[in-house]
């Protein structure tokens, strides 16, 4: 699948960065998703694989398409393709809002033996807050950057209401939710304890429970703070869509009030203090337990200003960043080649390209962005592409040679370096 606007962007970067490996890797990464991961399923929808896994994640597919939003206003064909992906996402949500990854049809592929309400069209049914937030944000950014509103159909609105209903239910997960998940003969992070319900949390405190993190790893404590932060931002975006496009003030008011409720709960229950500094925990349970860490997968604590929950100058965020970009974060690694945030999802000592690129996206100077871009391209393992994670002592040792999400975040960093920012 080839688009003139994509080729023009490659040429624009090539001219802006002559004789630079950054431009060469950008060309590879920017072409990769649009050329190799998207299939038009029918006249109305399109399907996006993650790369080396032949399934469509709601989160990944949203992030994979984000860099192409820069081109949508002047490219009708590309806009039409993204519209098809959004329709597919919201169709999946209508069928099962608790699933995170899907098959292209009733193929029965994926984790069909998991103990949950599996269906043949579902690849995996790990309930994650972010999986429901990303499609709303993609819809919002697509509108803002293309001017198109045809994707906001009645079906879209119904799925958005389903998402809100799920979130309200999961504020009372232990007593009101039917969702549970168990996987047999797996590592502990791939299943939920307590007969699939997860560890106990205090209900009704305003936070929304999540079974799994954006890494697809199980939460230790059920209130995942980066995802609750992201939810606040996305509910505000839904309120704007509801007011300006759908013209449903009741939905707008509901979304705005929900955002405010969750934000107040975050500031009450997720702020901890150590050494005289107040900062955000990664997970809490409302019962007094909390987890200090960060994971490179998005949304992360590091990405808080990128998604718009708090400014980089915010004192609590500044203190949080200090901690998670240090050895106080058990998943921060430093080696001969790289230093940065990894994930319990990958081996110890492996740093994620997404996390390094996010450091570049939130920094304020062009010089720092360039420094980070050079680190990324100099540690590509000789492939000309980004990866899931890389051994911080040896860039030839990495996980997932084809990981489209990492390619997308890298390309967005290049565009940010060149002064391009999405309209919001």
How would you concisely characterize the structure shown here?
This protein has 424 residues and is mainly alpha-helical. The chain has helices at residues 4-16, 21-36, 58-65, 76-95, 129-146, 154-169, 173-176, 193-196, 225-246, 249-269, 304-307, 315-324, 353-362, 366-378, 404-417, and strands spanning 38-40, 46-48, 56-57, 101-102, 122-124, 223-224, 271-274, 277-280, 283-284, 290-291, 332-334, 339-341, 350-352, 389-391, 394-399. Helix 3 runs parallel beside helix 5 (129-146), helix 4 crosses helix 6 and helix 13 (353-362) runs parallel beside helix 15 (404-417).
If you had to describe this structure to a student in words, what would you say it looks like?
The protein is mostly helical and 424 residues long. The protein has a domain at 37-330: Glycosyltransferase, CATH 1.50.10. It contains 15 helices and 15 strands. It has helices at 4-16, 21-36, 58-65, 76-95, 129-146, 154-169, 173-176, 193-196, 225-246, 249-269, 304-307, 315-324, 353-362, 366-378, 404-417, and strands at 38-40, 46-48, 56-57, 101-102, 122-124, 223-224, 271-274, 277-280, 283-284, 290-291, 332-334, 339-341, 350-352, 389-391, 394-399. The strands form six sheets. It has a three-stranded antiparallel beta sheet with strand order 3-4-5. A three-stranded antiparallel beta sheet has the order 6-9-10. Strands 13-14-15 form a three-stranded antiparallel beta sheet. A hairpin with a 2-residue loop joins strand 14 and strand 15. Helix 1 (4-16) packs antiparallel against helix 2. The longest helix has 22 residues, at 225-246. The chain is globular and about 60 Å long. The model has no long low-confidence stretch (mean pLDDT 97).
């Amino acid at each position: 699948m080839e688009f003139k606007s994509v080729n023009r962007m490659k040429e624009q970067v090539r001219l802006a960065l002559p004789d630079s490996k950054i431009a060469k890797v950008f060309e590879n990464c920017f072409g990769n998703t649009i050329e190799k991961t998207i299939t038009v399923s029918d006249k109305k929808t399109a399907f996006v694989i993650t790369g080396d896994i032949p399934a469509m994640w709601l989160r990944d597919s949203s992030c994979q398409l984000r860099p192409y939003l820069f081109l949508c206003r002047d490219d009708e064909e590309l806009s039409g393709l993204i519209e098809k992906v959004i329709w597919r996402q919201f169709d999946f949500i209508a069928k099962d809002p608790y699933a995170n990854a899907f098959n292209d049809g009733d193929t029965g592929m994926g984790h069909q033996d998991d103990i949950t309400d599996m269906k043949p069209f579902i690849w995996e049914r790990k309930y994650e807050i972010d999986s429901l937030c990303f499609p709303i944000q993609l819809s919002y950014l697509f509108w803002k950057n293309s001017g198109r509103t045809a994707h906001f159909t009645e079906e879209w609105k119904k799925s958005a209401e389903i998402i809100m209903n799920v979130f309200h239910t999961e504020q009372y997960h232990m007593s009101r939710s039917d969702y549970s998940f168990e996987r047999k003969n797996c590592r502990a992070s791939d299943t939920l304890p307590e007969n699939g319900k997860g560890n106990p949390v205090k209900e009704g405190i305003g936070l929304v429970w999540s079974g799994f993190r954006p890494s697809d790893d199980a939460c230790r404590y059920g209130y995942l703070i980066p995802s609750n932060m992201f939810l606040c931002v996305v509910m505000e975006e839904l309120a704007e869509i509801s007011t300006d496009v759908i013209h449903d003030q009741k939905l707008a008011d509901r979304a705005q009030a929900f955002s405010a409720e969750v934000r107040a709960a975050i500031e009450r229950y997720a702020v901890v203090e150590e050494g005289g500094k107040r900062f955000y925990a990664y997970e809490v349970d409302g019962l007094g337990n909390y987890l200090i860490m960060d994971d490179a997968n998005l949304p992360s604590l590091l990405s808080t200003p990128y998604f718009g929950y708090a400014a980089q100058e915010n004192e609590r965020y500044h203190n949080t960043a200090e901690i998670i970009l240090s050895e106080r974060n058990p998943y921060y690694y430093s080696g001969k080649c790289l230093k940065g945030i990894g994930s319990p999802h990958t081996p110890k000592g492996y740093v994620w390209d997404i996390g390094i690129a996010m450091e570049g996206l939130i920094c304020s100077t062009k010089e720092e962005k360039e420094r980070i871009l050079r680190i990324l391209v100099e540690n590509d393992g000789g492939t000309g592409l980004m990866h899931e994670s890389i051994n911080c002592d040896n860039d030839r040792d990495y996980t997932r040679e084809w990981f489209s999400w990492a390619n997308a975040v890298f390309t967005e960093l290049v565009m940010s370096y060149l002064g391009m920012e999405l309209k919001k």
